[in-house]
Design goal:
The chain has 15 helices and 25 strands. It is an alpha/beta fold and 570 residues long. The strands form five sheets. A nine-stranded mixed sheet has the order 19-18-20-21-17-22-23-24-25, with helices on both faces. The N and C termini lie far apart (87 Å).
């Protein structure tokens, strides 16, 4: 390795050789403790230097240190506030409280934990608070405040990052926990390469903006230990990390009868906590399950039956169709029937109800700014005007669309490249939906067969594998190849068998939807062509909508059957 390279571990070097050590030497003095040792030991080679990883380790004080400081590549374009906070060390009273949680003052010093007055919105007044300072390099990026009533807040307008993020640079492994107290507990137990999420866990853990801001820190990680809380939100967070960081590098921790790492430290001590981390278990192998792997799901099914499917927030459609993630939906219909628009309606519904983000590979939905405008109108629930530009609502809606919808742009779309980009967007942005619109313009250039049925089967198999691996819901918009007119002169409703390779489409698709417009009645019908699991919908069921032109939204429409016999009270 060229030790004076400008980049290491996937990061740009800001300051090379922070402590002016002997470059290239593998052993030497410790910059943290050697100056405090006895005169005869000050020059003792008590530390190891790994210049390749940019990490030093002292065998005397049992501490790791960075050899260089780093800057992130491709940092966020957003402008954030930098905290202006005067540091005050913790008082003896606060130190005593931490000691009841198994945390010594040295750990507070090591991790720059402070104390001070801060206004807390939960109490409506200034409170004495603990300050957890979030550093990236030598810059203070954010501050978490905690008062005596266990109220929390982050510094307003500051960037969200992992707490203690500097600690994992140079390591090929790291531990992720759910709170700053757990970081302190791990540090107390001698586990230094540990970070915490900034704002805990919720059941909806899709918007991990702090992961987006720190994703480069995980590029060199071969082992990521997920030591989050054992409650339901913690487990939801764990699954999202596995989905985005990759099951192959993730390992799981069980805290037995304890909620988290700090509780475990208090109850069982440092060595027991280290032992927990030393005995982590890998995420179950993809494609291989044992009963123990799925026992929790089995118990839940026995107790509660099928889990409800995800809905879009339109009552008439939700009553006939829902879905799970890790599946794909085929959407068909004659040209200009509103297929793409209704898919937009669905992903906007998922976003509003569950916070899901969506990526589009839409060669026909061009130019992109017009597609973004369609999504914006659905969120705006109106047509924004010139006078709205730059206003509060404009800024709010445009920022929301910017952060939740991503448009894959390629000169020539091909399936392999789109799925690779989709996988990258799962990792970096946390997308839960992928739209391929239309499939025939996103070719499988690596197909090994000219047979249309074989091509279709292989094409859909690749999409299914992507859906399962990343737990993504994929929409495939597919035009029918043939259209027929009925005796009344109207174009008949196509089925999935009217798509090129039709039999394979019906067999392989988890779900199928028809979008069909009646120009005379000015209504749009959405029909369920197939549901893989009957608890998620009803084959053949229909819902009707009118299209609202200003917002571009579908509004439920009750169709009256004029031929029906009147009821006695009518």
């Amino acid at each position: 390795m060229n030790v004076e390279s400008k980049e290491i571990n996937g990061f740009a070097i800001d300051t090379f050789n922070l402590y002016d050590l002997e470059v290239g030497k593998t052993q030497g003095v410790c910059p943290l403790c050697s100056h405090d040792r006895k005169p005869e030991n000050k020059k003792a080679k008590c530390a190891s230097y790994d210049w390749e990883r940019g990490l030093g380790t002292c065998h005397n004080c049992d501490t790791s240190f960075q050899l260089h400081s780093y800057q992130r590549k491709g940092a966020s374009e957003k402008v954030y506030v930098r905290p202006q906070v005067e540091f005050h060390p913790t008082s003896s009273k606060v130190v005593q409280w931490f000691e009841t949680r198994g945390i010594t003052n040295q750990t507070l010093v090591d991790l720059h934990v402070g104390e001070g007055q801060e206004f807390m919105p939960q109490t409506g007044k200034s409170e004495n608070t603990i300050h957890f300072n979030y550093y990236m390099g030598d810059q203070l990026i954010n501050v978490k405040y905690r008062d005596g009533r266990k109220n929390f807040k982050l510094y307003k307008g500051a960037e969200k990052i992992f707490y203690n993020i500097n600690s994992i640079i140079g390591y090929d492994a790291c531990v992720i926990v759910e709170g700053e107290m757990d970081v302190l507990a791990m540090h107390e137990a001698g586990i230094k390469n540990v970070i915490s999420v900034p704002n805990g866990a919720t059941l909806n853990s899709n918007n991990l903006d702090y992961l987006d801001n720190c994703i480069d820190y995980f590029d060199d990680k071969e082992k990521i230990i997920l030591a989050v809380d054992a409650d339901e939100p913690g487990q939801a967070l764990r699954q999202e990390f596995i989905r985005r960081l990759g099951a192959e590098v993730c390992y799981l921790v069980d805290f037995d009868d304890c909620k988290d790492a700090n509780d475990y430290l208090v109850k069982y001590g440092k060595s027991a906590l280290r032992n927990v981390i030393d005995n982590v278990r890998p995420v179950p192998l993809e494609g291989v399950s044992t009963l123990k792997d799925i026992e929790d799901e089995l118990k839940d099914f026995v107790k509660n039956g099928f889990k409800p499917g995800f809905q879009i927030g339109l009552k008439n459609f939700d009553s006939i169709f829902s879905t799970y993630t890790g599946q794909f939906i085929t959407v068909t219909g004659v040209p200009s029937s509103g297929k793409s628009d209704f898919v937009d309606q669905m992903v906007v519904g998922y976003n509003q109800l569950y916070g899901w983000k969506t990526a589009y590979a839409s060669p026909e939905n061009q130019p992109v700014y017009l597609h973004a405008h369609k999504l914006m109108r659905k969120h705006w629930q109106d047509m924004p005007s010139v006078g709205d530009i730059g206003g509060d609502k404009w800024e709010q809606v445009t920022e929301h669309v910017n952060d939740n919808y991503f448009f894959i742009d390629m000169d020539k779309y091909n399936l392999e490249a789109v799925l690779r980009k989709g996988a990258e967007l799962v990792k970096r942005k946390g997308i839960k939906c992928l739209v391929l619109d239309p499939f025939n313009k996103i070719r499988d250039v690596n197909a090994h067969s000219d047979d249309v049925n074989r091509y279709t089967m292989d094409y859909l198999a690749k999409i299914e594998a992507f859906c399962k691996k990343y737990d993504v819901l994929t929409f495939i918009v597919a035009h029918p190849t043939k259209m027929y007119k009925g005796q009344d002169g109207k174009i008949e409703e196509p089925t999935m068998y009217n798509i090129k390779g039709g039999g394979e489409w019906y067999d392989a698709s988890y779900h199928g939807l028809l979008v069909h417009r009646d120009y005379e009645a000015k209504t749009t019908k959405v029909k369920v062509l197939k549901v893989k699991f009957q608890n998620l919908g009803e084959n053949g069921a229909e819902s009707f909508f009118t299209w609202e032109p200003r917002s571009g939204s579908f509004v439920p429409h009750d169709v009256v059957d004029a031929t029906a016999e009147p009821m006695p009270w009518e």
